[in-house]
Amino acid sequence: MPSVQPLFNEQDLETNDQFLGLWSTTDFSEQWEVREEGKNSYLLYCLDDSSPMVLKGHLLKIAGEWFLDIFPSEEQIGTAGLLFLPMHSFYKVEIGELNLKVFAPDETQWRLYMQQAKGRGLAHTFLPEGQLLLTASPAELQKFIRKYPTKELFSDSTNFIRLVN
């Protein structure tokens, strides 16, 4: 689920050394190499069946849970030229010494909670294909996540195992 705004403000950012390293899905269909890049940011080198991608990542905690905001790296944006509008994506993550779980947003659940808010929901629009595009500020996004159960907002998980310490 794309967002025009990041999930974080600079003061929200944290680091977690356990996030660094080489990760793979259990079926080896996707690998991430996570490296530090400056203060409170990471580079994620993502390999799967399609072309490799380089993403910039930031970690933060909301209500005691870890979240990862990813955004195309400058290198990735440069190769796409003017046809590419970079967007943020964010995920709930559980970071362990040997395991990493990445929970994707459940767009259906987000829409449901936004409808229940009756005008007090998140700022958003819809793409021509009907996909939800969040336009809310980082503070509004964090407030929304705190208000609703994260197990419902972020339900579909991908499991990674550490390949190299």
Kindly, what is the distance between the CA atoms of the first and last residues, rounded to a whole number of angstroms?
A: 31 Å
**Count the strands?**
11
Write the CATH architecture name.
Answer: Beta Barrel
- CATH class equals Mainly Beta
Shape: globular
- How many helices? The count is 4
What's the SSE pattern? EEEEEEHEEHEEHHE
> Proportion of β residues?
35-45%
The tally of structural domains comes to 1
Helical content class: 10-25%
Chart the SSEs and their pairings:
Elements: E1 13-14, E2 21-25, E3 31-36, E4 42-47, E5 53-62, E6 65-72, H1 74-80, E7 89-95, E8 99-105, H2 107-116, E9 124-126, E10 132-134, H3 138-147, H4 150-153, E11 154-164
Antiparallel strand pairs: 1-5, 2-3, 2-11, 3-4, 4-5, 5-6, 6-7, 7-8, 8-11, 9-10
Overview of the molecule:
With 165 residues, the chain is α+β, with helices and mostly antiparallel strands. It has helices at residues 74-80, 107-116, 138-147, 150-153, and strands at 13-14, 21-25, 31-36, 42-47, 53-62, 65-72, 89-95, 99-105, 124-126, 132-134, 154-164. It has an 8-stranded antiparallel beta barrel with strand order 2-3-4-5-6-7-8-11. A two-stranded antiparallel sheet has the order 9-10. A hairpin with a 5-residue loop joins strand 4 (42-47) and strand 5. The mean pLDDT is 90.
